[in-house]
Amino acid sequence: MEGRISNAWRLTVNDKNFIKTALLSEIRIDGRKPFEYRKISIKFDRGDGSSEVQLGQTRVMGIVTAQLVQPYKDRPKEGTLSIFTEFSPMADPSFEPGRPGELAVELGRIIDRGLRESRAVDTESLCILAGKFVWAIRIDLHILDNGGNLVDAANIAALAALLTFRRPECSLGGEDGQEVIVHPPEIREPLPLTVHHLPIAITFGFFGNEGILLIDPTHNEEAVMGGRMTMTVNANGDICAIQKGGGEGVPQRVIMKCLQLATSKAASITKQIKDAVEAFTERALRKIKRHPTSTDVDVKEKQNQ
Amino acid sequence: MSKTEYVSPEGLRLDGRRPMEMRQLRAEIGTVAKANGSAVFEMGNTKVIAAVYGPREFSCWFVVDDECNSVFQVQNRSQQLNDQALAVNGDITCHPPDHGGVHFDSSNASFSGTRSACINAATLALADAGIPMRDIVTSCSAGYLNSTPLLDLNYIEDSAGGPDVTVGILPKLDKVTLLQMEAKLPVDIFENVMGLAVEGCKAVANYIKEMLWKDEDDALLKQALALSMNIPGSDSSVGDAEMSEATNDQELAMGMSCYLFVVLTYLEFLCHMDGLHNCGSHVGLKFYYLAKSYQSSITKELNMLALQMFMLNGSIDQSEESDVSKVLGDQSFMPSIISSELTQM
């Protein structure tokens, strides 16, 4: 990928040969085995719907926001889900500010396909008033540090942010029942999104003629490898999206092998995301006291005094 | 989305095809006059025109690498094709200072169908431009609707929102280079659908090969020769004049190398198309080895031979290939090179 960008960072020939030679004896420069994933750590910010994922040295921040908009004419009962990527030059000098690069477009599209085409997020439940008001969910993905395999990290960040996101509850009111009332979080508990399943992106790297296959390539390995393939699968064993845009050709049996590997990895990553989200939600619920009953009590007490 | 029936109880699709039937293919090369290589590729009603400009000279200020991949610029009308089109580029290893541009213009857009047609058109256009390729890349899509795997989705089937798999393969190496899949599908069904798409790719590859092979004997070879003749001088008469005056000029030698390079490029491609061995005693093989040996050892004899061939400009253009082979056969130049090359094979 990076070879095509003019100001891309390049590895020296010696470094490349070193990585390749080590891989021939199934050794990776960071000490992992070929099919070992890097350590994932998921952190959440104070607010709902924001996550920061660290995958080895790669760091991606995901932020989910929602807005009430008019739906598309052809889908009056469906909310929308859109993904925006931000590749800042801070993460990698080859990212140009402003213009989205090839990698940025590809990354956005892979995650978009995984989430949307597989209908992971229930968009119909985002409808408030058919044809007039639906929630538009926006996922912003900020690349903070490029340590390789941005797609997987960004995908996890998007999922974690989606799972912790809460949208304000709405009801219809007014004389004709056509007016939308958005309840503040203090009045009514905000609602989580309906996420049917978690499509997990798993990226594989292919190394030329030797037929080396590895999972979760680092930045250095990405500079050496001849081709990549991202498979988006969920824990139920469904394939949600596959992206292999050119590069080294691989035989069909290798693809099927990758699928098996991806399915098993997806199960463990799904568990990690769910555990992290659960831990966060419990903590958040304990911290935030926004139940109307408690405020009522306060008011009454004040009146008594 | 809606409960439309995409496969009738009789097993026919909306456009009357059977589930495993492709749309009609039609291809034509050399359709854009100005481009170095161009092709029209039609899959049913989807029509794609691809034009290749290049190889052009290109300043290689950053290419210091053990493996030099060529730089390709792909300009697309629709952004959707951007990364897909790159699939083609990834499989082309070129001589380092080459710079090409591929331009697509898809007139009737359907989604995955367009993607496949674009890749097929680009392959043809690149072949037409004489860019050396490891193998041709062909592409085809397949989907899964009404519990039936369907080959080569048309626009309506594609917009149904069902799973669709687009595959691009290198037919000779039997490797998958492009693979894209959308919507949810269990693993075992995916395997079937992908297998179907690969079969489709192979059918497209056969069609493309047949098409290129059909007129390879005369048209492409002649084209190669004609094109090579144009490189040293701006037109043949100027070339002739130059030649008669300066026999052993360095400029001319450079012209020769250029000329041989182009011939090599074409023949490399032709030989790749059907495997080197199938060329047999074909005149192309001789050209191929001649050019190959020229590349490895720049000798005066070869220069002279190239010069003689160059002088035969007129006769090559009009004569049958047997004449060319006779001319080549008559030469007493370095038979050792050719024979050694042949025995190596």
TrEMBL record, chain A:
Q: Which family does it belong to?
A: Belongs to the RNase PH family.
A single GO cellular-component term from the record reads: nuclear exosome (RNase complex)
For the biological process aspect of GO, one term held by this record is:
U4 snRNA 3'-end processing
What are the entry keywords?
A: Cytoplasm, Nucleus, RNA-binding
Against Gene3D superfamilies, the record matches this protein to: GHMP Kinase, N-terminal domain
Signal peptide positions on this chain: none
- Give the source lineage, highest ranks first: Eukaryota, Viridiplantae, Streptophyta, Embryophyta, Tracheophyta
Q: Which GO terms describe its molecular function?
A: mRNA 3'-UTR AU-rich region binding
On the tree of life, the source organism's domain of life is: Eukaryota
Domain called Exoribonuclease phosphorolytic: residue spans: 36-168, 197-264
> What protein am I looking at?
Protein ECERIFERUM 7
Q: Which organism is it from?
A: Hibiscus syriacus
Q: Which InterPro entries match?
A: ExoRNase_PH_dom1, ExoRNase_PH_dom2, ExoRNase_PH_dom2_sf, Exosome_comp_Rrp42_subfam, PNPase/RNase_PH_dom_sf, Ribosomal_Su5_D2-typ_SF, Rrp45
Q: Where in the cell is it found?
A: Cytoplasm; Nucleus
Automatic annotation (TrEMBL), chain B:
Q: Name one GO cellular component term.
A: nucleolus
Instruction: Give the matching Gene3D superfamilies.
Output: GHMP Kinase, N-terminal domain (3.30.230.70)
**Matching InterPro entries:** ExoRNase_PH_dom1, ExoRNase_PH_dom2, ExoRNase_PH_dom2_sf, PNPase/RNase_PH_dom_sf, Ribosomal_Su5_D2-typ_SF, RNase_PH
A Gene Ontology MF term for this entry?
RNA binding
Gene Ontology biological process: nuclear mRNA surveillance; poly(A)-dependent snoRNA 3'-end processing; rRNA catabolic process; U4 snRNA 3'-end processing
One family name in Pfam for this protein: RNase_PH_C
Q: Where is the Exoribonuclease phosphorolytic domain?
A: 21-57, 135-199
Which PANTHER family does this entry report, sorted A to Z? Answer: EXOSOME COMPLEX COMPONENT, EXOSOME COMPLEX COMPONENT RRP41
Membership in a protein family:
Belongs to the RNase PH family.
Please identify the protein, giving its name as recorded. Answer: 3'-5'-exoribonuclease family protein isoform 2
Give the source species: Hibiscus syriacus (Rose of Sharon)
